[in-house]
Amino acid sequence: AFDDPYSGAQTYINGKNVILRLFSENDLEEYTKLTENVADKGEFYPLHIPSLEIIKKEFGEKGWADKDDGGMLICDKKGKMVGDIWFFKSSVNIITGYEIGYQIFNKNDYGKGYMSEALSLFSAYLFNIKPIERLGLFIISENKGSIQVAKKCGYKYEGTLRRTVREHLNFFDYESYSLLKEEILSLRELLKKINQVITRRWR
Q1: Highest mean pLDDT range out of 4-13, 42-51, 82-91, 152-161?
Q2: CA distance 53 to 115
Q3: Taking the complete model, does pTM exceed 0.85, yes or no?
Q4: For strand 98-104 and strand 81-89, is the pairing parallel, antiparallel, or unpaired?
């Protein structure tokens, strides 16, 4: 099921290794625990982490599914929360389309293919429901894992913004990547391709 999430709370995208679904109020406590445990995160994880009270307040205002920003949980096939993925208006006013941000909650789930599949599905989904031609990513240059995910999903390098972001008391360069609508399969085609791969494997 992948209707526009902003008209129904049961929306989910069932992939090969992940399920993308909307947040519910019942998710918030577990979600907060997963995001606040900095010891389980990679070195580029932001240190500013909102409290459960702030998260509940923000969720109550718009349910994290607004017209120009929103997110979905990334779950494994058993339903365990492994990450999240978001879209929002670009921080650079002249850029059209949306930026995407994402994270895997625990380092033990790195390298399992969750994020590359989630990014592909989420990107195709946004092109399916939004009148946009472009999606963008800004990634810290040293974050080689995230850059690898972007390239695997077809995002193309556009350039480097030097010393743009300050994290952990250090300044880092941002690399800009983008994906155009014609550079990715439609969501239905992508899901069909995944199902075909699974069908062949079952045989």
Answers
A1: 152-161
A2: 28
A3: yes
A4: antiparallel
pLDDT at 12 over 50: yes
Residue-level pLDDT at 131? 92
Angle, helices 28-36 vs 52-62, to 10°: value is: 130
- 3-state secondary structure at position 105: coil
First-last CA distance in the chain = 25
Distance set, CA 152 to CA 45, 103, 116, 119 (Å):
21, 16, 7, 10
Collapsing DSSP states into helix, strand and coil, what is residue 162? Answer: strand
User: DSSP characters for 10-69?
Assistant: T-EEE-SSEEEE---GGGHHHHHHHHH-GGGS-TTS-S----HHHHHHHHHHHTTB-SSE
Check residue 181 and report its DSSP letter.
Answer: G
Tell me: the pLDDT tens digits for 97-128?
Answer: 999 999 999 989 999 999 999 999 999 999 99
CA separation, residue 158 to residues 73, 91, 92 (Å): 28, 16, 14
> Strand, helix or coil at 150?
helix
